[in-house]
Amino acid sequence: MSITRLTDRLGHSKSGTVLSKIRLDSPEIRSAFPDNLVARWFHCCRRLDSAGYGNVVLSAYVRYAPKIAESLDARAAFDLTDSISEVAAKTGRVEAEGLPYAAYVAAERINDYRGFRVWLSLIERFAAVAPESTAALLERMEHLLKNLTIGGLESWILAGIRSSGGDGEQRLRFFSFEDPESSRWLLYESGSVTFSSMAKRLGPFLRALWRAAPPMREPPLTATEQAKRRSSFDHGVIRMPTSFPGFHGAHAEDLYRACIAHIGAHIYYSGPRFPVRKLKPIQIAVISLLEDARVESLAMREFPGLKRLWLPLHAAQTPSSLSPNNALMAPNMLARLARALIDPDFEDFDGWVMKAKTEFFDQENNWSNSEMSRELGGLLGNELGQMRVGWQFDMRNYVVEPPYRDDNMGIWDFGDDDLPQDSLEAEQLFDSIRIEQQPDDMDDPAEREKEEPEQDLELGEKPVRIEVQQVEGIPVARYPEFDYLTGKDRPEWTTIVEYSGAKGPIQSIDAIVEEHDDVLHRITSLISAARVSRPKRARRLADGDYLDLDACIEARIDQRVGNTPDPRVYGKWTRQDRDLSVLLLLDISESTRDKVVRSKASVLDLEISASVLLAHAMSQLGDPFAIAAFCSNNRDDVRYYRIKDFNQPYNESVQSSLAGLESGLSTRIGAAIRHSGNNLSAQQSYRKLLLIITDGEPSDLDVDDTSYLIEDARKAVQSLAHQGVDVFGVGLQTSGRSYLEKIFGRRNSIEISRVDLLPKKLPMLYLRMTA
Amino acid sequence: MMLKGPTGCGKTRFIEHMAHQLKKPLITVSCHEDMTASDLVGRYLLDADGTVWHDGPLTLAVRFGAICYLDEIVEARQDTTVVIHSLTDDRRMLALEKKNEVIQAHIDFQIVISYNPGYQSVLKDLKESTKQRFAALDFSYPEPRIEADIVAHEANIDQSLATTLVTIAERSRNLKGHGLDEGASTRMLIYAGKLVSQGVSLTEACKVALVLPITDDPDLRDSLSTAIAACA
Asked: In the beta sheet, which residues pair with residue A752?
């Protein structure tokens, strides 16, 4: 039937204008929709019109749906109608208005009907979960799809939703790219080469070359845009750009390698910092450049192959190929000088550049003297500054070329004392705020009603630890206490009160992991030996898998001699599975505040370090484990901190609790032992182990008799043995072993005299005990 | 004597040299987990007429005055290793219970063990009572110049290539404990050198002889390869 009559039949719309302006016989419609589908197309339009979303939605749809139908499939346009309704229902008009164009962009990029449907469904689900961010997402669809596949888009969206933890405002920040995490994740999902993808390769590379291993980080959130474009080395921390825009694949990887090698050369060969004093910016730039060349030249003497890494990245052009204006600009002059100093074939016709090159190489024997850069660079910089009149060197916007070189902040002494001493600490501040805002999976009901954390944001000072206002601890259990004088338990004598501890910065945990990197590696390799249960040989069995040769021969001999042979001539391989649970109990009484001999750390610090390493080992081994800490304030306030429960994963929240432990109060260890034992005996494993780390004699305010609590602790250990729980005590800096052995028994206790070795020793001890 | 040190440092070569210098026979036993005391000491074997006693390698050495070299003794289980205890204190005797014989060690008898303390499992360590019966010599990588000489000689390559190889080895040794259990040993350098002398490119030789064997971690392989590339 003719098209016009169709329109007549379908009648006029209520709102009138947009719908009635649809030309069903336009070439666009005719090519997008085959004959039998045109009616359906119009029906969709009418549906949108009568739904009351307004003219803008319908206009957008009318404009873009045919294009989508054209490039993909007519059905895509119809599916879009459904999606618009869905999205409009969950969100609002604005989002519905943005959807057709976003769909058009998606259709162009995805180029596949099925993929388009997946995309539509993704958007619908997103609108349901994050209505407040839908408009932001749709607006940026073009940018997103330029970098991501659908799978990548879904991943990125998921990252945003998860990291916001149900907070709508946070989500909106993410999806509007106000949160720097969004770009970071985008880079990650787009598969481009980023620092995080290269980090694991750069560290060992640097260490292999120069034995250097300073921590490497991305630029802090507070860095300027300019600072983020180049690497930096300052205050013992290496900063690497999150990515190098414009570089892809293998080129980007080589760029990162060149970058870290250059910084390594600085670390190894650069001397004391140059004082800035009255130097002009151009001089600073030239001195920095010469210092770069100097350390690189020295590095290339030792490692000639580095030239192949650095040289290709010098792309400065010779002046003949540039316009005169460009050729005179300082950054270009500097880039050419840089190239001249490394590339023997590069000829520059500028007098200053060639003079600098000659002087640099003339002083070849003086390269090991860092003063050379300063003197020569100062002179050359001065000359350069005077040569061109009326032309400014813009230090603020100057970015060193080539891009693998660092910003040289690390070689200058600006004489300022109010710059942050260690920018890592400032970062800790922001990060600990973020962790506070993340909901804990295993929410302790006692931990509600937190006050807003107070923050002190002056970067120059030491960061203030974010303190959660502690709720009063919850009394959870009463235990008897043994009185050795009467020889009987006193029932319900002590009260265990569970507290939720303060959270600390997890950077300190990361620092522990980095510091003990070698021990962790050792543990990992030991674990892989211990984890797969080792086959053990059982010999001289009555039945088995193979013949035990020695037993056979003896049997034969016996036969010959006339004795009765022993029929147990078989052997078998058996596997012993690991089936044990461990609860690690830490003494955090006041005495753990003391500093340890030969170390700057306190006893508590070392306990925490040891726990981190042990937790690492145990989580890899797969043994179920829990961590708790205790101290006491009289018998009705024996404080128990559950840092990690058995069914809790060893995650950031656990680490944060570990980092937040503080020393204080006394050591009523018997009660803590009983409570831990209770926790442990609920476990289903064959073996249950309570591993206690303590640094002093049991004591408490209301107890004068020194033997009383020792005897009680001893009784507690015995009662645990009845419940099938093994107890092992590790003593630190204890004045004598006598009470340690008395409580735990000689075989189940160990004194660690060199407490600074505790982090290394504890995991080994654990492996030995549980082999 | 106990020869301590990482693998591939010349412990076995040293023992061979010593045997040569002292003009004594050398009996080498490569220890492994399945080794029983009988494997060392000897056992009865069956033949047509009955049983006949066969001396084990240790007993042979004890009887006839040879050097018995127990290589990688930690691999053997501890209940096997204690069989040497009576030989390593002032008793210097070996009791063959099954044979009802006590042998006084020959005056030339010596026992030498090799021991690599680095990556032994905590479960597979030498007992303290065993360790203390030996005097130890520390073996580790030779000084760079000497190591280069060794590599040049053993692999039949020129000095400058050998020096480059030693530089490369040092890079890998910097990673000991930080991803690698051990850096490249002198032996591995010799292998790499041999490959080069037969026409393999240095990069390829290093990859095959140095990088691929010591680690499976792709990140570490990449770092190591990059560091090696920087050396030449």
From this structure: A732
Within 10 angstroms of residue A312's Cβ, the number of other Cβ atoms is: 14
- Do B177 and A522 count as a contact with CB atoms less than 8 A apart? yes
How does DSSP classify residue A667? B
What DSSP character marks residue B210? I
The average pLDDT across A339-364 equals 87
Cβ–Cβ under 8 Å, residues A137 and A127: no
Task: Identify any residues that bridge with B2 across adjacent strands, giving them in sequence order.
Answer: B113, B136
- Please state whether the peptide bond connecting residue A214 to the residue before it is cis, i.e. omega within 30 degrees of 0: no
Gap between the Cα atoms of A130 and B97, Å rounded: 81
Taking CA A400 as the corner, what is the angle to CA A396 and CA A405, rounded to the nearest 5 degrees? 140
pLDDT-based confidence at residue A530 (cuts at 50, 70, 90): low
* Chain position carrying tokens 């005719």: A30
Query: What's the pLDDT score for residue B120?
Result: 53
B44, B78, B116, B171, best to mutate vs chain A, most A CBs in 10 Å: B171
Does residue A402 have a cis peptide bond before it, meaning omega lies within 30 degrees of 0?
yes
Query: Mean of the per-residue pLDDT values for chain A?
Result: 80
Compute the distance between CA of residue B144 and CA of residue B163 in angstroms, rounded to an integer. 8
Judged by phi (left if over 0) then psi (alpha if -120 to 50, else beta), residue B156 lies in left
- Partners of residue A304 in chain B, C-beta under 8 Å: 230-232
3-class DSSP assignment, residue A436: helix
As a whole number of angstroms, the distance between CA B175 and CA B171 comes to 7
DSSP string, A32-62: HS-HHHHHHHHHHHHHHHHTT--HHHHHHHH
Name the one residue in this structure whose structure tokens are 């719309």. Answer: A13
Structure confidence at residue A396 (pLDDT): 73
Q: Per DSSP, which regions of chain B are E strands? A: 2-4, 26-30, 42-46, 51-55, 67-71, 93-96, 101-104, 110-115, 136-138
Three-state secondary-structure class, residue A594: coil
A721: three-class secondary structure by DSSP: helix
Contact B190, B167 (CB under 8 A): no
- DSSP letter at A12 equals -
Per-residue pLDDT tens digits for A287-331: 999 999 999 999 999 999 999 999 999 988 776 655 555 555 778
Q: Find the CB nearest B230 among A309, A556, A764.
A: A309
Distance from CA of A241 to the nearest CA of B (A): 19
Structure tokens at A597: 């001999």
Q: CA separation (Å) from A88 to A40, A81, A157, A554? A: 21, 11, 20, 88
**Is the sign of the CA dihedral A134, A138, A143, A148 positive or negative?**
positive
DSSP state letters, A244-261: -TT--HHHHHHHHHHHHH
By residue count, chain A amounts to 771
* In the block, residue with structure tokens 């469904």: A121
First to last CA, chain A: 86
CB A135 within 8 A of CB A145: no
The confidence score (pLDDT) of residue A393 equals 72
> How many beta-carbon contacts under 8 Å exist across A and B?
93
Find the helix packing angle between A517-531 and A506-515, rounded to 10°: 80
Nearest Cα of chain B lies from the Cα of A240 at a distance, in angstroms, of 17
Instruction: Report residue A769: phi and psi, to 5°.
Output: -70, -30
Query: In this predicted model, what pLDDT tens digit does every residue of A650-708 receive, in sequence order?
Result: 888 888 889 999 998 999 999 999 999 998 988 888 788 999 998 878 888 877 777 88
Cα–Cα distance between A221 and A198 in angstroms, integer?
Answer: 20
Which residues in chain B have their CB less than 8 angstroms from residue A201's CB? 219, 222-223, 226
Lowest mean pLDDT among A77-86, A88-97, A323-332, B187-196: A323-332
Q: How far apart are CA A687 and CA A726, in angstroms?
A: 8
A203 vs B181: CB contact, 8 Å cut-off? no
